[in-house]
Amino acid sequence: MKKTLLSLLLISLLLAACATPATETPAREAPAKPERTKTPIAWSSIKLTQSGGLAGVSRIITFSQDGRGSAVDERAAKNVEVTLTAEQVAQMDALVQEVVKLPRVALESTCVDCFVYALEVSSSGKTKIVQLSEAQLAASGFEALVTFLRALMDVALQ
């Protein structure tokens, strides 16, 4: 048994001595992924409709990408032309860029006497329409844009 073990050990040493030395290959770094540039969406128009609530309001504000638009209060029969500043146009564009990639939201009908918002963004001949209740707004991802447009509507329809 000792002889067999000694023979195995000797053969192992001989084989190890005859082997070519292993060279360390440097670890390869994963190729850098090309950075994706976000191509801005060239939207052409945006429309926010606010309806419902205790008073049963029906108000609409629309804008084209150049900042020209109108605000309408259907109950008060008031229609006002609105022109945004360059800063407001840039702010609205940034907000639109964020919401166009969000998924559609299903309107919850469990909110009684809440405002319902219908947001329409038209781009390249397609229109994305999202309807949501006041109760859904905070968790939807659309809140910043809806709040921005509603503030413009409130000022225009004073």
Describe the protein's topology.
Blueprint: H1 2-18, E1 43-52, E2 57-64, E3 68-73, E4 78-83, H2 86-99, E5 115-123, E6 126-133, H3 137-140, H4 143-156
Antiparallel strand pairs: 1-2, 1-5, 2-3, 3-4, 5-6
In short:
The chain has 158 residues and is α+β, with helices and mostly antiparallel strands.
> How many structural domains can be distinguished in the coordinates?
1
Mean pLDDT: 80
What is the global morphology? globular
Q: Indicate the percent of residues in helices.
A: 25-40%
Number of helices: 4
Give the topology string: H per helix, E per strand: HEEEEHEEHH
Biggest sheet strand order reads 4-3-2-1-5-6
Q: Summarize the biggest pleated sheet.
A: 6 strands, antiparallel
Low-confidence stretches: 5-27, 33-37
Strand content: 25-35%
Class computed from helices, strands and strand pairing: alpha+beta
According to CATH, what is the topology?
Answer: Mago nashi protein
Radius of gyration: 32 Å
In words, what does this structure look like?
The chain is α+β, with helices and mostly antiparallel strands and 158 residues long. It has four helices and six strands; from the N terminus they run H-E-E-E-E-H-E-E-H-H. The protein has helices spanning 2-18, 86-99, 137-140, 143-156; strands spanning 43-52, 57-64, 68-73, 78-83, 115-123, 126-133. The chain has a six-stranded antiparallel sheet, covered by helices on one side. Helix 2 runs antiparallel to helix 4. Mean pLDDT is 80; it is low at 5-27 and 33-37.
